[in-house]
Amino acid sequence: MNLTKPKFLIVSDQKWVLKKLPVVRNILSECPQLADVELVYDYRRLTPKVSKGRIEQEWFQEHISRQAILDGYLGAVFVASLAQAKRWKLKSGLRGSHFSDGDGFIEAWAAANSSSVVRFKDKSRRDLLPKVICHELGHGFTELGLTELEVHDFDYQTSINNIDGFYRELRLGDERPSLLKRLMFRLQVLLDIVRSPNP
Fold first, then answer.
1. What domain range is 83 assigned to?
2. pTM value?
3. Where does residue 59 rank: exposed (0-12), middle (13-18), buried (19+ CB within 10 A)?
């Protein structure tokens, strides 16, 4: 992981996602340490393995995280359309999720359409996909131990609309304590590749 030039992989077969990435970048760059964040779009047609209405983490790691870790990404987000989410039987109403596993790599998925918006109780509206991506990445920064901020204090379903405020307040802490976790996870990925009959 590199906090001097952090980069995230965005995987989807929805080309409209590209148009949303500048909004995601603008929100993330509210945090000074993410001012130079790089969002890399990777067009891939994938059908995730789903269990109990959620994408399985093992599938995510095998098809997305494994290579992203080797390529030096801080995290990866898989984006599906709402039609795909329905077809794959993702939990109705769930628009994203973050895998909390302590492996030192941020992994999340999101589901939206190009025109999806979220309406808040205060009558404000927001483009759904950038909000969900930034929300789930926020959970990841907390999981990595880089902040004590909780994203739900700033952004929660339809009641709190301040994801920008989360990133304005976010100051990423010392990454050394989570470095060992990341190195161990990267080592495990490399071992899996070496042991695999089809690397």
1. 7-177
2. 0.86
3. middle
